[in-house]
Specification:
Number of domains of chain B: 2
CATH architecture of the largest domain in chain B: 3-Layer(aba) Sandwich
CATH architecture of the largest domain in chain A: Orthogonal Bundle
Shape of chain A: globular
Number of strands of chain A: 0
Shape of chain B: globular
Structural class of chain B: alpha/beta
Largest sheet of chain B: 10 strands, mixed
Largest interface: A-B, 35 and 32 residues
Number of domains of chain A: 2
CATH topology of the largest domain in chain B: D-Maltodextrin-Binding Protein, domain 2
CATH superfamily of the largest domain in chain B: Periplasmic binding protein-like II
Order of helices and strands of chain B: HEHEHEHEHEHEHHEHEHEEHHHHH
Strand content of chain A: under 5%
Order of helices and strands of chain A: HHHHHHHHHHHHHH
Structural class of chain A: mainly alpha
Helix content of chain B: 40-55%
Largest sheet of chain A: none
Number of helices of chain A: 14
Number of helices of chain B: 15
Strand content of chain B: 15-25%
Number of strands of chain B: 10
Oligomer: heterodimer
Helix content of chain A: over 70%
Distance between the termini of chain B: 58 Å
């Protein structure tokens, strides 16, 4: 037993170095900046600055975008997963590869492509106009930011949900059918509850990044709409106020931690099936 | 388990120490050598072949470092982690460095090619370096309006087109606090270096009123949006305008009559420079006719070196984007704003503008 433990701790060496160097130490540095002012004296004003009207507005807008994107991802993911999970293994694997394929491309490149598609004279606006709808320009709107975010993070929702659904014993579903359950009942009483752990991982992986994807907001929102990530970026890059930038980051982290406790609890309960 | 942890830790620490020692040894070797210059510049802002040529001609090695923004440069320089000998940065940052006593006088008696730099640019420099003692002009340009002649009524000659509502939804502004406030202050008839709170507040209100008419605030993509026909008017730098005109001949660039920002990037020698003679040699080398020409062709911004124009083919000499008439920059100002309080106010208002 002792030997096994020794080997394990050696194996975890690289991870410990990684976690220390790239997570723990940077986090400590950020927190140090967050709780001090420019002269180095202790203050909480940087963290509390999240309640300034300008910052709060950005936070609320980020929340709206993140919730919207997560809901759309869920609504799109389930039908897809149900369809793919019924396919034979080889074909479902192929479908998943197609889904993952865009993730192999550079993120900025994809955004620039979307910018063209969504621009005033882009394909999407041309289709909208051809359909007879006038006076509506999709470029530089919250909708175009959401399209970019959803496109980027959709696979992170599909994969864990797919894993959870595929792990459901086919016998369980058959048993439900034998007992006379209709398709809708099977989904709501069997598939959906059993896929919850996967759904929770999916929500975590979509919700958090979509709140802070400031590059997407800058490129697809035309710089007119600010997520909380944009404000943090501006504090660091333009205002050179690292203390305030770090303070807002910490406030955001606290905020995400609070909103995630609920998801994590669910996850723990069904840990064995979690992704 | 405890033992192993300790051993692992010891191993890691040894590794770190070896690395640090190694870095220290090599680091010293480079920076202590009398024949090495550490040069700090913006990215893609010097033809790498010219560095090789300089080393070949003089035997002086160049250690080359790059940064993206003046602020990033300032932070790295001030941190003192690397001892830079030469720095190329922007007007207002140079003023700050001069104020903070971080640069030393350039000994122009060691120069052969100093006179290749036109008098006009030495005059520009005086706004941040009053006696032309500390800085050597490198490249320059202006901020102006790039517009699609097929989409606007007549010729544009004023910032007014951005603010009068005529081109609502067709306007691209710079996604940068400095540039956006500068042109608005110029439009309102103020200096772009104003520190007057009322004037800055007026500029903010003007920008806020303009925001619904703005299609987007962009930086690098501003030019592309006009080229692609998505917008009629964009605020861009002259270098961008040159490329825009090349892609689409219908595009015109104008420096509005109210005046604008003229920027000037210059070289300076740092206070810590150990080998000022080598540093002067390098700066003089950059002024030399053939080097300046090659460097110009690599970077393609307006150059203060007057031999470059003479050495270009005639059709390129008349390029009004690269070599504008003296008259168009008449009302232009160099940015020399270094007041921290004003900068803080501008940043705050910019954030509010974006939030509304």
């Amino acid at each position: 037993m002792d030997k096994v433990m020794n080997r394990r701790s050696v194996l975890s060496g690289p991870y410990v170095v990684w976690a220390l160097g790239f997570t723990v130490i940077p986090l400590i540095v950020i927190i140090k900046y967050a709780i001090s002012d420019r002269t180095g004296a202790f203050t909480l004003s940087n963290i509390l600055a999240i309640f300034d009207p300008v910052n709060l507005k950005a936070l609320i807008f980020s929340l709206e975008i993140a919730i919207g994107c997560t809901v759309v991802c869920i609504l799109l993911a389930y039908p897809l997963v149900l369809a793919i999970s019924r396919l034979k293994f080889a074909r479902s694997g192929f479908m998943l590869v197609i889904l993952i394929l865009p993730m192999w491309m550079n993120f900025i490149l994809k955004l620039l492509a979307w910018q063209m598609i969504l621009s005033s004279n882009g394909i999407l606006n041309m289709i909208i106009r051809a359909a007879g709808i006038t006076g509506f320009d999709i470029s530089n709107t919250p909708i175009s930011i959401m399209i970019g975010v959803i496109y980027e993070y959709f696979p992170y929702m599909v994969l864990p949900v797919f894993d959870a659904v595929i792990a459901i014993d086919a016998d369980v579903i058959e048993a439900a059918r034998d007992l006379g359950a209709k398709k809708g009942t099977v989904f709501w009483k069997i598939i959906f509850p059993l896929s919850l752990p996967g759904l929770m991982s999916g929500i975590t992986m979509v919700f958090v990044p979509s709140m802070t994807s400031f590059v997407t907001a800058d490129i697809l929102g035309g710089g007119k709409l600010q997520l909380v990530g944009n404000i943090i970026e501006q504090e660091f890059i333009q205002s050179m106020n690292w203390n305030l930038g770090a303070g807002l980051s910490v406030a955001l982290m606290i905020f995400i931690l609070i909103s995630m406790t609920f998801t994590v609890k669910k996850d723990e309960r069904e840990e064995e099936e979690a992704w | 388990m405890y033992m192993i942890r300790k051993k692992t830790l010891a191993l890691i620490l040894t590794g770190i120490m070896i690395t640090i020692t190694a870095l220290g040894v090599f680091g010293c070797e480079v920076s202590d050598s009398a024949d090495t210059l550490t040069v700090f510049n913006y990215g893609e802002y010097l033809d790498p072949d010219m560095i090789k040529l300089f080393t070949k001609e003089t035997g002086i090695k160049i250690k080359y470092e790059e940064a993206t923004t003046p602020e990033e440069m300032y932070t790295k320089f001030k941190s003192g982690a690397i001892g830079y000998d030469l720095l190329c940065t922007s007007d207002y940052m140079l003023k700050r460095l001069i104020n903070e006593n971080e640069v030393r006088e350039i000994d122009y008696s060691l120069f052969q090619y100093k006179d290749n730099i036109g008098q006009k640019y030495w005059d520009f420099s005086k706004s941040f370096d009053p006696e032309n003692k500390y800085t050597l002009p490198y490249f320059w340009g202006t901020l102006g309006i790039l517009y699609d002649t097929t989409k606007v009524n007549g010729k544009i000659d004023s910032w007014d087109v951005l603010f009068n509502g005529e081109y609502a939804g067709q306007i691209i502004m710079q996604n940068a606090v400095r540039e956006t406030f500068q042109i608005t202050e110029k439009y309102l008839g103020y200096s772009l270096n104003t520190t007057d709170r009322d004037e800055i507040q007026k500029a903010y209100e003007t920008l806020l009123k303009q925001k619904p008419d703005v299609q987007a605030y962009l930086v690098d993509e501003a030019r592309d949006e006009v080229v692609a026909g998505n917008a009629a008017i964009a605020v861009v730098y002259s270098g961008e305008a040159y490329l825009g005109h090349k892609y689409n001949p219908d595009l015109e660039y104008v420096i509005p009559k109210e005046g604008s920002n003229v920027w000037l990037d210059s070289w300076c020698i740092t206070k810590n420079c150990k080998n000022t003679e080598a540093a002067c040699k390098f700066l003089d080398f950059l002024c030399r006719d053939d080097v300046a020409l090659k460097n110009f062709e690599f970077i393609y911004y307006s150059t203060p070196n007057e031999t470059v124009k003479e050495n270009l083919p005639p059709e390129d000499q008349n390029d009004k984007y690269m070599f504008p008439d003296d008259s168009v920059t008449e009302n232009c100002e160099v940015c020399t704003l270094t007041d921290p309080e004003t900068n803080e106010l501008l940043n705050k208002l910019w954030k509010e503008l974006k939030a509304n």
